[in-house]
Amino acid sequence: MTTPQEDLLPATRRALLHRIAVAQTEGRAPSLVAAVARGGETVWTGARTSVDGHGPDENVQYRIGSITKTFTAVLVLRLRDEGVLDLGDPLEKYLSGTGAGEVTIAELLAHTGGLAAESPAPWWERTSGSLRPELADVLGEQPFRHPVGRRHHYSNPGYTLLGALVEELRGAPWEEVLRREVLEPLSLHRTSGRPRAPHAGGWAVHPWADVMMPEPAEDLGRMAPAGQLWSTTADLARFAVFLVQGDERVLSAESVREMRTPAAPPETEELAAGSAYGLGMQIVHRDGRTLVGHSGSLPGFLAGLVIGVEDDVAAVVLSNCTSGPPVFSVAADLVRIVAQAEPRIPEPWRPIPEGDAVLLELVGQWYWGTQAFGLRLLADAGLALEPLSGAGRRARFRANADGTWTGLNGYYAGEPLRAVRRPDGSVSHLDLGSFVFTRQPYDEGAPVPGGVDPEGWRGIR
User: Fold this and answer.
1) What is the mean pLDDT of residues 228-243?
2) What is the pTM of this model?
């Protein structure tokens, strides 16, 4: 349910309106619509249009292009979570005869499969999908442009293969599976493969004159999983909330977090720009915050969905022109405006319900060699390790049923942490991926690899 727009301060609402007004004017867009979600609900919508009278609202459909890929990725992650497939499996295991079967499912999701960016001519976005009825027509005779797994190279045919994978394993058309497994559970009733009234028409605006002409809206056929969908700012704002919180009816919070995690080696330009790619999601570092989401474009339309997870703010911007306003950047600006003007109010600190004496024995100061670290117990029974001064590796750890922990981020992601105990049950040291952490620097009472000099600490003689 949409919350009253008064939930944002008047000055914030005006700043949001000003930003999209500038974008529509400077981008020479026939129309531009936007929405902002915060706290799991839509708190602002806005629109600017070149047509006098009633402008488009949050329920008018626009084509969203490659934001479709994020929906397709959700379907694939669902199959993984059900145990139907593993992301490390080669495509050939489930879909034979494509000529690209050596590529893994994870590589297709992250655009690291080495496949071409586009399908063979003619330009697939402006021609009927009936010209490419089979996967062989989408991939062409030479589907690869780079060695598999070596670099990030955006590939529309790669997501066509993922859509075909979904169809093969579900035994139903991609769009039917999407509606049943994602759109209906999340109440995205205005998201569809074909436009449904009211919807915007797509336009091409002349670069050197204030005139325009309509763009064709083709059915992409086999290429649909890469860019077919139409949606609204209201639906995409709800989808953005799902991409932060998860929904057990569709995909868990842990799995959507995995989608938002970098999974592809960035190119040099991307590294300089602070951008990366996850599993069906773009990741950008801008204005001191990490943003996730996806951009989209098809002839006649531009789309941007941006989420500031730490700020708990998401923004959607849609426009009906082939080129013009930088909608992804505008959406990022909307997130920044709300985050800076009305910073997220943190939840109250509360003590954990009950202290675990075994865990409390582990917290406090530890040394890796001579570097001091602090180990803190978290409310979810996890642990956080961080240097007490200067630079150093830091990480969070989740608890395992066997009394160990597994690293969640940074250098120690996936690495095991365990407390090693003496015969009397007291803690001797921590073993973190073979590194020994002791209570004192090079504690002679702990099994420090290489041993400790028997003369101990000393000054210059």
Assistant:
1) 98
2) 0.90
